[in-house]
Write a structure and sequence with these properties.
The complex is a heterodimer of chains A (795) and B (158).
Chain A: H1 23-27, E1 44-50, E2 56-62, H2 64-67, E3 72-77, H3 78-82, E4 110-111, E5 117-123, H4 126-134, E6 137-142, E7 168-176, H5 179-184, E8 188-201, E9 209-215, E10 220-225, H6 230-241, E11 248-251, H7 267-279, E12 283-286, H8 289-295, E13 298-311, E14 316-326, H9 339-347, E15 356-364, H10 379-397, H11 401-408, E16 417-418, E17 424-425, H12 430-441, H13 443-455, E18 459-471, E19 489-495, E20 501-505, H14 514-527, E21 533-537, H15 554-581, E22 588-591, E23 594-597, E24 602-605, H16 606-615, E25 629-634, E26 642-654, E27 661-671, H17 678-698, E28 728-732, H18 750-767, E29 776-777, H19 781-794
Parallel strand pairs in A: 1-12, 8-29, 10-11, 14-15, 20-21, 27-28
Antiparallel strand pairs in A: 1-5, 2-4, 2-6, 3-5, 7-15, 8-13, 9-10, 9-12, 13-14, 16-17, 18-26, 19-20, 19-25, 22-23, 23-24, 26-27
Chain B: E1 4-11, E2 14-21, H1 26-33, E3 52-55, E4 58-61, E5 74-76, H2 78-84, H3 88-97, H4 106-118, H5 125-131, H6 143-157
Parallel strand pairs in B: 1-5
Antiparallel strand pairs in B: 1-2, 3-4, 3-5
Helix pairs in contact in B: 3-6
Classes of the chains: A alpha+beta (795), B alpha+beta (158).
Chain lengths: 795, 158
C-alpha cells in the first residue's frame, strides 16, 4: 500500500469523527432531488398494463379505444418494443450451470408472473396514462403455474421454460470432510430442524422510477435513475438499445432508499428508455406502490433442512444442510438470482471452526415475482441456520450458548485462515466482539431477570448471533463471471482557485453518507476544513469509472481510492509550494487550508498557491508543471471479499396468550475495521438491525394459490414502525483490514444479516421452558401460537 | 375524467390561484402543479406518512386530501417551515443526530414531529415512538429520530 500509516496520527481531525453530513441540510429543507422531482420540457408519462395472471398465454391485445383517449401519445406492446431492444439473460459463467431464459422488457406472448408488464401507455400525465390502461383489453389463456418452490421440481410441475425440461435454475453442492462419519461418531448428538424463511421485499420508501431523455442529434440517451450503480446501467442501456456506451449518461441524484432493490434490470425502466428513444422526448415512469410490491425484486424465500452435530463437551463436529430457494420465472439480469443461494453455501458456519461441512443448494423457477440480491444477500439464512442450530445444540447439551460459541469460534489470533467452505478470512475478532457484547448487555443480569420473570409467568428470551459479513468485494464477485460490473472505484480531487477541494467519485449515495465520508477522507488526508470540500457522485459523465455502492463496498473501496487521491494531491501541492517557498516537501505540511511548516506556522494559503498556478503561471519556473488534480483507483486484490464480523444479541418478551413477540432491546458489536464516521456507521447498523427484525417478525409477501400477491399494499404488508422497535446499543471493535491504508470494511449488511438469527434464538430461548420452538420467519403471532400448541402436545 | 375547477389557497404564505383536476390530490398538486417537490409520495393511501404536511395548522396526509378540498386553506410544506425558520431547531437536531439517511421520509417526519411538539408533547420515548408510528422510515433505526425530537423538547423547556 502507498501512503503513510501516519495519516491517522496527524491532526487530520476528520477521519473517525462523528461529523454531521452536509447532505442532511438539503434533505431537511425539502431540497432533495429525487427522480420524481425531475421535470423536463416536453416530458410525457408512462403507465403499464400488467399481468393479472401468474402464468398465461396472451391471446390478444386491443388498444384501439385507448389510443383515442385524451392525452394519449403512444401505446406499445411487448412485440412493438422487441424490435427496438435486445433481450437479456441473467446468467454468469462463474455460477456454473446457472440457466435462465431470454427476457424482454415487456412480455411477449406469455406472462410468467403477476405484475409483469404487458402494455405500456404514454400520455400527457400519469393519470391520463392510467385512464388509458383501463381501456386496454388483453385476453389471456391461463396456464398452470408453478408457485410453490417446494413443488417446482415435482415431475408433474408445470415447466416455465419448456426447453429446460424442468424448473431447476442452478444447483451447487459442497462437501468438506466426512459429515456422515462425524455425525456417526460416538458421543455426537445431532440437532435437526427445518427452517423456513418467508419471501419479503425491500419497500424502499421512494418507489423505483426513471426519467429518460433522448437527443437524436447526438444519439444521446440521458437516464435519470434512482439506483446504486450508474456505470453498470450505462452498459446495459447501451448494449440492449444499440447505443455507444459513451452516448448513454446515467445520473443518480438523491435515492430514496435502495437496499439492493434498485440495482437490477427492470423491464418497465428499460421500456421507458426505449420509448424515450422512439419518441425522441423525455419519458417519466414512477412505479406506484402496488407496482413496487409486485415488480421490485423479492428476497429470501428459502426452505432449509439442516443438521448440526455436537459433543457433550461442546465441540461442533459439523453442519449438513439442504437449501431450496424460489427465484421467480427468470434469473434477474445482470447479477443473477443464484448469488443468494451461493452465499448461503459460502457463509453458513463461517465464524466457527468446522471440519465437516456438507451442503446442497437448489435454485428453482416459479411463477412469482423475481427474487434477487437484497441487503445482506444470503446472510440472514446462513446465520440463522448455523446459530439457530448452535443454540438448539446448547439447549440439548445443557451448555450456555455463549460458552458453546467460545468453544467453537475461530480464535482471534488464528488469522489468516480459511472457512470450511474455503473463504479466505483475515483480521476478524469474534472472541473480542462476543466478549464486548456480553459486557455491554450485562448478560448475567439479563439471565437473572429472565429467571425472575419466568417465575411470574413472563417469558423473556435472550438470543445471540456471531456473524460474518461479506464486504469490499473484489472482481471475484461478478466481473470474473462476465458481468459488466466494475469492482474497482475511482476518486478525483481537484484544488480549485479559491483553495477548496472538489471531489468526484464513482461510488454512490443512497443516504448512508457516501458523500460525507468522501469529504471527511479528502479533508482529513489533504488538510483543509471539511466545509471546503464539495462532492460529486452519481453521474457517469462527471465521475471516475467504477462500481457504485453495493455489497458494502463504498467506504472500503471508494474510501481507499479517495484516500490515495487526496494523498497524491497533497504531494503535488507540496511540490509546488516547495518551489514557491524555496523549501522542500518534507519540511512542509498542509493544515487548515494552508501550507505550513512542520510547527504549523502558515507559509502560504492554498488559495494563494492555486491562484498563482492558475492565474499567474509566469511567476513559476518554466520547468514546473503543476497538477492540482489527482485521480486514484482502488480494487481489492488479495481476497475475493473482505469479511467483517460482529456479535449481536436480542432480548425479547413473548406473550404466550397472543403470540406477540416484543423486542425489548438489541445490542450489536461490529468490527468494520476503521470507523470513518461513527455517527453514520451506528445509524447504518441500527437501520440494518431494524430491517433484520422486519424479516424475523413481520415482513412476508403472501400469495394466493393461483399466484396473486395478497398483501401488495403498505396497509397489508407489515414493516417495522417506531412504536414496535427497540433502542439498539452499538459498540465497535476496530480491526482495520490490511488490504488498504484506510483499513475500512463495510457495515451496511451487518444488522440485516445478523438480527434475524438473534431474534429467532431469543424467541426460542423464551419458549424453551414450554418445550416449544419455532423455525419459521417471520415469527408471526399465529406461528408462535402454533409452536406453543405443538409444544403442549409434545409434553 | 379530466374535469377541473379553480381554487384559491395560501401555500407557504403565498396566495395561489390555480385550476386543478378535481380528482388530483393535494400532494400531487403541490409537487407537480407548484413544483414544491419537498413533500414526497410513498404509498398514495395514507399509510407511509411521506406526504405529511400542514393544512390550517394540523398535520394531514397530502395524498388523502384532494387539492379542491384545500380551497381557502392555509397550507404549509417543508419548504415553508424551512424558509420561515419554524422547523429550524428540528432540522438542527436531525442533522446532529443523523436522524435521516436517504431523506425521503424526512419532510413528513419533520411535519409529524412539529405536530407533536406544537401539541406540547413530552420528552417521552414511548410517546414519541407512538406519535411517529404513522411515518415509515426504512433507513434509520428510528432511535436517532426519537433522540432528535427529545433534544428539541428539552432545549425548548430548558
Amino acid at each position: 500500500m502507498t501512503g503513510p500509516a501516519t495519516i491517522f496520527d496527524q491532526p487530520n481531525r476528520y477521519i473517525g469523527q462523528p461529523e454531521p453530513r452536509a447532505d442532511t441540510r438539503r434533505l431537511l429543507q425539502g431540497r432533495g432531488r429525487f427522480v420524481d422531482d425531475v421535470s423536463l420540457p416536453r416530458m410525457v408519462h408512462a403507465a403499464f398494463v400488467r399481468s393479472p395472471h401468474a402464468h398465461a398465454k396472451i391471446t390478444s391485445i386491443d388498444t384501439s379505444d385507448a389510443r383515442s383517449m385524451p392525452g394519449v401519445i403512444a401505446i406499445f406492446t411487448g412485440a412493438d418494443l422487441a424490435e427496438h431492444v435486445t433481450p437479456y439473460v441473467g446468467v454468469l459463467s462463474h455460477l456454473a450451470g446457472l440457466r435462465s431464459a431470454e427476457q424482454y422488457p415487456i412480455a411477449v406472448d406469455t406472462v410468467r408472473w403477476q405484475g409483469e408488464p404487458v402494455v405500456m401507455v404514454v400520455a400527457q400525465s400519469r393519470a391520463l396514462a392510467e385512464d388509458a390502461c383501463d381501456a386496454i383489453f388483453v385476453d389471456y389463456d391461463p396456464l398452470p403455474a408453478a408457485l410453490d418452490a417446494e413443488h417446482a421440481l415435482d415431475a408433474d410441475a408445470p415447466v416455465i421454460h419448456p426447453s429446460f425440461g424442468n424448473n431447476l435454475a442452478w444447483e451447487r453442492t459442497v462437501d468438506v470432510g466426512d459429515i456422515d462419519a462425524a455425525f456417526a461418531a460416538e458421543g455426537v448428538k445431532i440437532v435437526e430442524r427445518e427452517f423456513r424463511f418467508g419471501r419479503h421485499t425491500g419497500v424502499t420508501l421512494e418507489t423505483r422510477g426513471t426519467v429518460c431523455d433522448f437527443d437524436p442529434s447526438q444519439d444521446q440517451l440521458t437516464v435519470h435513475y434512482s439506483g446504486q450503480a450508474p456505470h453498470m446501467m450505462q452498459v446495459i442501456f447501451a448494449k440492449h438499445l444499440g447505443l455507444a456506451e459513451e452516448n448513454v449518461r446515467v445520473i443518480s441524484n438523491d435515492v430514496g432508499g435502495s437496499f439492493g432493490i434498485k440495482i437490477h434490470t427492470y423491464g418497465d425502466e428499460i421500456a421507458t428508455a426505449v420509448v424515450a428513444k422512439i419518441l425522441r422526448r423525455p419519458v417519466k415512469f414512477i412505479a406506484d406502490r402496488f407496482e413496487s410490491f409486485v415488480t421490485d425484486i423479492h428476497a429470501r424465500d428459502h426452505v432449509v433442512q439442516a443438521r448440526m452435530g455436537v459433543t457433550q463437551e461442546g465441540k461442533i463436529v459439523g453442519i449438513d444442510f439442504d437449501d431450496l430457494t424460489g427465484i421467480g420465472p427468470f434469473s434477474m439480469y445482470p447479477r443473477t438470482s443464484a448469488i443468494e443461494c451461493n452465499q448461503v453455501l459460502n457463509l453458513t458456519g463461517a465464524p466457527y471452526v468446522l471440519e465437516n461441512y456438507r451442503a446442497r443448494g437448489r435454485v428453482v423457477f416459479q411463477n412469482k415475482t423475481l427474487m434477487c440480491q437484497y441487503r445482506a444477500v444470503g446472510h440472514p439464512i446462513a446465520m440463522a441456520i448455523c446459530d439457530g442450530l448452535l443454540e438448539d445444540a446448547a439447549r440439548l447439551i445443557g451448555m450456555d450458548p455463549v460458552e458453546l460459541r467460545r468453544k467453537n469460534l475461530m480464535r482471534d489470533d488464528s488469522y489468516p485462515r480459511a472457512s470450511a467452505t474455503g473463504m479466505k478470512l483475515d483480521d476478524l475478532s469474534h472472541h473480542k466482539a462476543l466478549h464486548k457484547l456480553t459486557e455491554i448487555m450485562d448478560y448475567d443480569a439479563l439471565r437473572a431477570d429472565q429467571a425472575a420473570s419466568r417465575s411470574k409467568g413472563i417469558y423473556r428470551g435472550i438470543g445471540f448471533v456471531s456473524m460474518v459479513e461479506v464486504t469490499n468485494p473484489s472482481p471475484m464477485f461478478y466481473g470474473v463471471g462476465g458481468a459488466a460490473i466494475a469492482s474497482q472505484d475511482g476518486a478525483t480531487v481537484r484544488l480549485d482557485a479559491g483553495g477548496a477541494l472538489h471531489v468526484s467519485s464513482s461510488i454512490t449515495e443512497q443516504g448512508q453518507g457516501t458523500n460525507a465520508i468522501l469529504a471527511q477522507i479528502a479533508a482529513g488526508v489533504f488538510g483543509v476544513d471539511l466545509d471546503r470540500v464539495k462532492v460529486t457522485t452519481g453521474d457517469t459523465a462527471t465521475t471516475p469509472y467504477g462500481g457504485g455502492t453495493w455489497a458494502s463496498r463504498g467506504a472500503g473501496i471508494g474510501g481507499e481510492a479517495m484516500l490515495q487521491a487526496a494523498h497524491a494531491l497533497r504531494d503535488q501541492v507540496l511540490d509546488v509550494a516547495a518551489v514557491m517557498l524555496q523549501s522542500t516537501r518534507d519540511a512542509l505540511d498542509i493544515r487548515g487550508g494552508a501550507v505550513t511548516d512542520l510547527s504549523g506556522q502558515v507559509r502560504l494559503t492554498l488559495a494563494d498557491l492555486a491562484r498563482t498556478v492558475y492565474y499567474r503561471g509566469n511567476e513559476l519556473p518554466s520547468d514546473l508543471n503543476p497538477e492540482l488534480i489527482a485521480t486514484r483507483h482502488y480494487r481489492v486484490t488479495d481476497f475475493p471479499f473482505v469479511f467483517t464480523n460482529g456479535a449481536m444479541a436480542a432480548h425479547v418478551e413473548v406473550d404466550t396468550e397472543t403470540g406477540f413477540v416484543k423486542v425489548l432491546h438489541f445490542w450489536a458489536v461490529e468490527d468494520c475495521g476503521r470507523v470513518i464516521n461513527p455517527l453514520l456507521v451506528d445509524e447504518q447498523i441500527r437501520g440494518g438491525v431494524i430491517q433484520g427484525i422486519g424479516g424475523a417478525l413481520y415482513e412476508e409477501c403472501h400469495y394466493s394459490l393461483d399466484g396473486q400477491m395478497l398483501n401488495a399494499s403498505m396497509a397489508d404488508y407489515m414493516v417495522p414502525m417506531a412504536a414496535e422497535m427497540p433502542d439498539i446499543t452499538i459498540a465497535h471493535v476496530e480491526t482495520p483490514t490490511k488490504t488498504s491504508v484506510l483499513g475500512a470494511k463495510g457495515a451496511g449488511e451487518a444488522g440485516t444479516g445478523g438480527a434475524p438469527a438473534a431474534v429467532l434464538n431469543a424467541v426460542n430461548d423464551a419458549l424453551s421452558p414450554l418445550r416449544a420452538s419455532i423455525w419459521q420467519m417471520p415469527m408471526t403471532p399465529e406461528r408462535v401460537l402454533a409452536a406453543l400448541d405443538k409444544g403442549q402436545k409434545t409434553n | 375524467m379530466t374535469k377541473t375547477t379553480e381554487i384559491t389557497l395560501t401555500v407557504n404564505d403565498e396566495t395561489i390561484h390555480a385550476t386543478v383536476p378535481v380528482r388530483q390530490n393535494l400532494v400531487d398538486f403541490l409537487r407537480h402543479g407548484l413544483h414544491l417537490t419537498g413533500s414526497h409520495v410513498g404509498c398514495e393511501h395514507g399509510v407511509c406518512g411521506a406526504c405529511t404536511l400542514m393544512v390550517n395548522g394540523q398535520t394531514v396526509r397530502g395524498c388523502l386530501m384532494l387539492a379542491v378540498q384545500a380551497n381557502g386553506a392555509t397550507v404549509q410544506t417543508i419548504e415553508g417551515y424551512a424558509d420561515s425558520g419554524r422547523s429550524a431547531a428540528l432540522q438542527e437536531a436531525f442533522a446532529k443526530r443523523n436522524a435521516l439517511q436517504c431523506g425521503f421520509c424526512t419532510p413528513g417526519m419533520l411535519a409529524s414531529a412539529l405536530g407533536y411538539i406544537d401539541a406540547g408533547g413530552a420528552a417521552d420515548r414511548v410517546a414519541i415512538r407512538e406519535h411517529i408510528s404513522g411515518n415509515y422510515c426504512r433507513c434509520t433505526g428510528y432511535q436517532s429520530i426519537v433522540d432528535a425530537i427529545i433534544d428539541v423538547i428539552e432545549e425548548t423547556n430548558a
